[in-house]
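Q: I'm a student working through a structural biology exercise. My instructor gave each of us a protein and asked us to get a predicted structure, then write a short paragraph describing it. Mine is Ribosome maturation factor RimM. I'm not confident about reading structure output yet, so if you can add a plain explanation after the tokens, that would really help. Here is the sequence I was given:
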Amino acid sequence: MATFGNFAKRKVPDRTPGAESGVDDADAGSLEAAALPDDLIEVGVIVDAYGVKGWVKVQPHAQEGQGGDALVRARGWWLAPRIAAPGQPVGGAGASAAGAQGALRGYAVSQAKPHSGSVVAHLNGFADRDQALAAKGSAVHVRRADFAKLDRDEFYWVDLIGLAVVNGEGDRLGQVVGLIDNGAHSVMRVAPSEDARASDERLIPFVDAYVRSVDFDARQVVVDWGLDY
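A: Happy to help. First, here is the predicted structure for Ribosome maturation factor RimM. I'll explain a few features afterward.
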């Protein structure tokens, strides 16, 4: 079974179900007035300005070929600024970890391209370096529909999170709450409940030897793994 793209950290909460993206090639700026799409996924963070003409530099949560391609493919990005903790500047060191997210605001993407392990892009409405720097620290979201189509037996992490995990005997082991990339393959973090402690988790390698099938219709992963492992 092939590995899969470790693209997104988490889904964005509180979406409006059934909304369309509203992105148009002629859109000249913010998509803020359009209804938020219901399939937005966080895919990276703006870490700096790039040049002096309003371009931004994004550190993606996954690289090219592992899901990071969606940043380049997408015609619209939705930015959520980080709100710093008291006494901490927005976009400053540690602000991303300490601060909460602000409201999402959409922008049409005029250009985007890979650049030395990052992605650089120009968003309509960004005219100079100062505007690009003001967006530093913002989380970048794109539509799940903008992810590249995967080959058979390849999966994006974000699609696996939340699936029930059962073994061949029908025993429920929990649900996928996260994944880990150990370099050789991915490992599912399976917890009996959403509020489980880390010590309660099972770590199941996402490889043929242990994973029998992934069934999105049934919302479950079937594994060769015992309750007493």
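A: Here are two points you could use in your paragraph. The chain is about 10% helix and 35% strand. Residues 161-223 form a domain with the SH3 type barrels. fold (CATH 2.30.30.240). It's a good idea to check both against the output above yourself.
Q: Great, thank you!
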